[in-house]
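Exam review. A common question shows you a sequence with its structure tokens and asks you to describe the fold in words. Practice with the pair below. Do the first one on your own.
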Amino acid sequence: MRITIDTDICIGSGQCALTAPGVFTQDDDGFSALLPGKEDGTDDPLAREAARACPVQAISLTEV
């Protein structure tokens, strides 16, 4: 699945990085970012949980 982060609405709560640390991190400003190598998608089942955990729904998942 492909993961996209809407950086315009991300508030930097960090729920994604806490839920799926193998997929997400936080940048120097504290906002959500994908770990290197995850830009083109992942099969990590925690990515879906991380998208649900986002309080502002900034994470979108699309099946490829």
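Now try the second one, then compare your answer with the model answer below.
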Amino acid sequence: MEFFFVIGFFVVLLLTGVSVIGVLIALFAGAVLLMFSGFLLLAIKLLPWLLLAVAVAWIYQTFIAPPSSSPVTRRFDKTMAKINRMNRRG
């Protein structure tokens, strides 16, 4: 990771020239590069755990949890019951 930071720092310095503004821009660009590469490595490091969580949730919903209607279905049924009541009233 530090290698990418140093490479990015020098590339930006070459593109902007060596001045106070150039150094500040290079530091900012290097920090952004380091931040995004850290996010990428964190996501890769956590990927097996995320996949395990998805697998456990799927197994629980498929085999263990009692079958029940989804919240969307319940909301639809409730709305249809209201419409039927309104239609019966006239």
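Model answer, second protein: The two ends are 71 Å apart (CA to CA). The chain has a mean pLDDT of 83. Full marks require stating both points clearly.
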